[in-house]
Amino acid sequence: MTLVKERRHQQALRLSLPPPIPPADFRHRPSHCPPVFPATTNPRCPYIDDLSDLEKLTVLGHENGGTVYKVRHKRTSSIFALKVLRFDRNAVTLQKQAVREAEILEHVDSPYSVRCHAMFDSDDDLCFAIEHMERGSLHDILLLRKVMPENVISAVAHGVLLGLQYLHRMQIVHGDIKPSNLLINARGDVKIADFGVSRVVAGKHDSCDRFMGTCAYMSPERFDPERWGGDHNADGFAGDVWSLGVVVLECLMALVCAIRFGETFEMPKNSSSEFRSFMRRCLEKDWRNRGTIDELLNHPFVVRSCYGSMEGLVDFD
């Protein structure tokens, strides 16, 4: 295992895209996504009929091909995040990615993933009005270079596993689990965000090497499918488990961790036996033997978080 001592900007590894999911008929109209649970920002959660209903307050961040704004609903003063993806007619790859994200967001409705409240499309951009997560991302917290205590890491892992359990039951592989895609609200709830490289699998096993992602969090079968048995046979869901393992390790080490697949993995000496056991199940190099979501939700490292709260994460920063 190699530990990189300086946090770095994560560059997406660009690979060819799979055939896009047939897009829902959302073009030129808002697509409302009413949640089962009320949004944490404001319990009223109004439907947004037009982009003119939203007032831009500040820029929250930039992503590949777009910008995220903090916005306010003029009539109710509810706060949202507005993700604006901009592309020209020649940006075919970005358009396919945006269509796929829109299709998935229309169907995802879980308290463990960031909710979409409306979508708007034009010739040059696609806008998502999504749940505003007040405390930013896990990446923002890790940039403070603080080592998280294991009880907080356990709570983070528990929330992400519940989100992945929901997505996988819907046959959705997220494909890019990493700290910047795990957002935190005012209560300390961790939610999965950014479905730009996610996909719906066609069957039990689906090729896992044909879409974008982030190198540092890629599983062996995605990074080198010929060597690690990922070509046309790998379970794409197992790749999300590996990525979560890298995130959990990063939380403990306060460093970006680059794992060399051909070397013996050494566990941090300052970690508990429960933590080390959890990591071994997540970072099993053979995807066939890697821990499953249901197994990991019952792992002693994760179960102990069920008896606490998320207050530790709220106070952590």
TrEMBL record:
GO terms, molecular function: ATP binding; protein serine/threonine kinase activity
InterPro entries: Kinase-like_dom_sf, Prot_kinase_dom, Ser/Thr_kinase_AS, Ser_Thr_kinase
GO CC terms of this entry: cytoplasm
Coiled coil: none
Domain Protein kinase per the UniProt entry, residue ranges: 54-302
PROSITE patterns: PROTEIN_KINASE_DOM, PROTEIN_KINASE_ST
Protein's recorded name: Protein kinase domain-containing protein
